[in-house]
Design goal:
The structure is a single chain. The termini are far apart. The chain has helices at residues 20-31, 43-51, 68-77, 101-124, 151-171, 189-193, 199-206, 217-228; strands at residues 11-14, 35-40, 59-62, 81-86, 128-137, 177-183, 239-242. It has a single domain, classed as NAD(P)-binding Rossmann-like Domain (Rossmann fold, 3-Layer(aba) Sandwich). Strand 5 (128-137), helix 5 (151-171) and strand 6 form a beta-alpha-beta unit. By secondary structure, it is an alpha/beta fold. The radius of gyration is 17 Å and the shape is globular. The longest helix has 24 residues, at 101-124. A 7-stranded parallel beta sheet has the order 3-2-1-4-5-6-7, with helices on both faces. The protein binds NADP nicotinamide-adenine-dinucleotide phosphate. NADP nicotinamide-adenine-dinucleotide phosphate (NAP) is lined by residues 16, 18-22, 40-42, 45, 64-66, 87-91, 110, 137, 139, 183, 185-186, 188-191.
Length: 249
């Protein structure tokens, strides 16, 4: 039976694969039949993801995507791609009055500039096949809403989602689709870096979610699989909210 969500015969590059959402995307894409090229900074954690991949023909490349040379090397080492899932990202909670240039540069580069130039280098070297799909993990923050202290993070994700729309328009002639997924809180390491919550605080937070729970990595990776698969072949330039109904209230 033809499964429109299958990733058989597709090669997909996945950044941020050593943790959280990117790790889940890697494992689930491999289950759907893709050959995956996974990348992250931390070699041991990346190896852990690699060891969990079903099937064979996968590859792993260690790279620091806050460094332009590593981005170039990663683009050079990649084979031709049917899909890219950009997940590498960082967050820091800082009130506007305390924003400083180093933090801002770091967040903007890791979350926006890096993924933008990685995409450009792959395009220029013709590594992104016609009819391929590029998916950026953006955020609810900066596109649909924002929380206190998130101005730098929101700026980086706003930039990423804006770039994705421009790229979607320009690359449509080659059948290349570009979309974003926009999660609210997903329980991963990045969420913990923005402050550990007590059980009571967690309960309070969940009250803001009509579907009565926070997100888990597969809530996002299943949506990314949809965008990477032929099921979404007429869908481009989107920001898809994945938020348990958070923005409804
Ligand atoms: N969790 C949420 O609530 C949430 C909500 C909305 C959007 N997002 C977005 O989802 C994406 C994935 O986050 P996550 O929740 O899965 O967090 P995570 O568990 O902290 O994972 C972040 C990933 O990004 C990688 N990374 C960070 N800086 C990097 C760099 N300079 N070079 C290469 N890789 C780098 C990390 O690699 P190492 O392991 O090597 O450090 C890790 O694989 C991020 O873009 C984040 O902004 C998350």
């Amino acid at each position: 039976m033809n499964n429109p969500f299958s990733l058989e015969n597709k090669t997909v590059l996945i950044t941020g694969a050593s943790s959280g959402i990117g790790k889940s995307v890697s494992i689930e894409c491999a289950k759907m039949g893709a050959k995956v090229i996974i990348t992250g900074r931390n070699e041991n954690r990346l190896k852990d993801t690699f060891n969990e991949l079903e099937g064979d023909g996968h590859n792993m490349i260690v790279a620091d995507l806050s460094n332009m040379n590593d981005i170039k090397e990663l683009a050079n080492e990649c084979s031709k791609l049917d899909g890219i899932s950009h997940n590498a990202g960082i967050a820091k909670i800082v009130p506007v009055k305390f924003v400083n240039k180093d933090d801002l540069d770091n967040i903007l580069f890791t979350n926006a500039t890096g993924p933008i130039f990685l995409t450009q280098m792959l395009l220029r070297s013709k590594k992104i096949k016609n009819n391929a799909s590029v998916v950026f993990t953006s955020s609810l923050s900066g596109i649909y809403c924002v929380h206190y202290g998130e101005s730098m993070y929101a700026a980086s994700k706003g930039a990423l989602s804006g770039f994705a729309k421009g790229a979607a328009l320009e690359l449509a002639a080659q059948g290349i689709r570009v979309n974003c997924v926009n999660p609210s809180i997903i329980q991963t390491h990045i969420f913990e870096t923005t402050g550990v919550l007590s059980d009571e605080e967690l309960k309070e937070k969940i009250k803001n979610y009509p579907l009565r729970r926070l997100g888990v990595p597969t809530d996002v990776s299943y949506a990314i699989i949809y965008f990477l698969s032929d099921a979404s072949s007429w869908v481009t330039g989107n920001d898809l909210k994945i938020d348990g109904g958070y923005t409804l209230i």
